[in-house]
Automatic annotation (TrEMBL):
Protein name (database record): Cytosine/adenosine deaminase
Keyword entries, A-Z: Hydrolase
Domain Amidohydrolase-related: 50-390
One matching Pfam family: Amidohydro_1
Gene3D superfamilies named in the record: Metal-dependent hydrolases, Urease, subunit C, domain 1
Classification lineage: Bacteria, Bacillati, Bacillota, Tissierellia, Dethiosulfatibacter
Native species: Dethiosulfatibacter aminovorans DSM 17477
InterPro entries named among the record's database cross-references: Amidohydro-rel (IPR006680), Metal-dep_hydrolase_composite (IPR011059), Metal_Hydrolase (IPR032466), MTA/SAH_deaminase (IPR050287)
GO molecular function: hydrolase activity, acting on carbon-nitrogen (but not peptide) bonds
Length: 421
């Protein structure tokens, strides 16, 4: 067992100004320093701040090796962005590329305090791709993760279904779908048979083109089409939902699905601003993701706050405590679907947490702790220590897991992509 003492401890629900934590794989004991009596191996926290590890609820690990690549494309709309950039890129990914992407991504996640992810994967090699991710993310880096393959008519449908079912049966999978504009009714009928009651993970109305395509080709909105095929299963993740209408919002809330917002990606792709009031009036669970655009989950929670105010047209349209509550509920969601126990610094929970050098410029207490975390820690700080399942993944800013950066693989991948330009 290990101990860290003389800490500020905050888990979005409780705050301890001068506390300690004793942990192994699980958190064993947490309390005020006046009650500390342990003689275990210890680190003096020297007033540092401890918070739970972060979760990325919607990302694309495969996008890592895209960085710096010039696709010589100038897409004018979202469909062109898919056709001319992302679908040309991911269709050329081989299993070894996926493994390297995951190693780089995990290293960057941990440096940014992310200890759990839900990945939405796509690659030219379908079969075995999620096992490659699993072996790197869970087995090598010791992070928590949920997986799915982005089922689409541009791939072999049977392979996509089998890859998803493999993860669902292992207990760490959702059933993945790409935007419905890439799936026919015939495909959705087959998916319905195999997905059964499994939560799905799907792109929904990221751009208005997705909605327009659905209405034009099928006479109904994207969410209505999902419902038609019985795919709005409880705890499903509907990513983006930037362009849904009130009826779709009501349906999502009634079916107890969650929406994973990706504010920075939405700005980057110029697809619009989500309707925050629509989510709140329909009691929709809000999660946060990066959509593969980096690993900075802290930034995404901040952009949710700022873009949400823009969405409501009111500088007081979102109070800070709403964001805190979304974070608390998002941990509960992850625990429910994954069987984990994260998000609380409490006895019996998994020892997944971060320790920051944070010297409050103003008094910090239980009433304003989240304000300090949100505007101070989330804004720029990097964790000195990252612990996942009781193991130091980042120790005194130094990554503890090594991997080889294979530029030869990247060069081969980029050359293959060049064949499609």
């Amino acid at each position: 067992m290990k101990a860290i003492i003389n800490l500020k401890i905050y888990d979005y629900e409780n705050y301890i100004d001068n506390g300690y934590i004793i942990f192994d794989k699980k958190i064993i004991e947490v309390g005020h320093m006046d009650g500390f009596k342990s003689s275990h191996e210890r680190i003096d926290g020297k007033g540092k701040l401890l918070i739970p590890g972060l979760v990325n609820f919607h990302t694309h690990v495969y996008s890592t090796l895209f960085r710096g690549l010039d696709m010589k494309a100038s897409p004018q709309n979202f469909k062109e962005l898919l056709d001319d950039v992302w679908w040309k890129f991911d269709s050329r990914l081989l299993l070894e590329d996926i493994g390297l992407s995951a190693e780089v991504y995990c290293d960057e996640c941990l440096k940014s305090g992310v200890t759990s992810i839900i990945d939405h994967h796509a690659s030219g090699e379908v079969s075995g791709s999620l096992d490659v991710l699993r072996n790197v993310i869970i087995k090598k880096f010791g992070m928590k993760a949920m997986f799915c393959f982005e089922t689409s008519d541009r791939f072999d449908l049977g392979e996509c279904i089998r890859e998803n079912l493999h993860s669902v049966n292992l207990g760490d999978g959702l059933f993945g779908l790409h935007a419905l504009m890439s799936l026919s009714d015939e495909s959705l009928e087959k998916i319905k048979i195999y997905a059964k009651n499994s939560p799905i993970h799907v792109h929904v109305a990221e751009s208005i083109e997705d909605e327009e395509h659905s209405i034009r080709e099928y006479g109904m909105t994207v969410v209505d089409r999902l419902d038609k095929f019985g795919l709005l299963n409880e705890d499903s993740i509907l990513a983006h939902c930037v362009n849904i209408n009130d009826r779709e919002g009501e349906l999502i809330g009634r079916k107890k699905c969650a929406v994973a917002l990706n504010p920075t990606s939405n700005m980057n792709n110029a697809v619009g601003i989500f309707d925050y009031n629509l989510f709140t009036r329909n009691n929709i669970k809000i999660l946060i993701g990066t959509d593969g655009l980096g690993v900075n989950v802290m930034r995404e929670w901040q952009n949710l706050y700022y873009m949400g105010k823009q969405s409501t047209g009111n500088p007081s349209g979102i109070v800070l405590d709403e964001i805190r509550n979304h974070i608390v509920e998002s941990y509960r969601y992850f625990n429910r679907i994954s069987g984990s126990r994260i998000g609380r610094i409490k006895s019996g929970y998994d020892a997944d947490f971060l320790v920051f050098d944070y010297n409050p410029p103003t008094p910090m207490n239980s009433d304003n702790a989240f304000g300090h975390v949100f505007f101070g820690v989330f804004d720029s700080m990097k964790p000195r220590y990252v612990i996942a399942d009781g193991h130091y993944k980042i120790n005194d800013y130094k990554p503890q897991i090594e991997f080889e950066m294979r530029h030869d693989l990247v060069n081969d991948l980029w050359e293959r992509i060049g064949e499609t330009l």
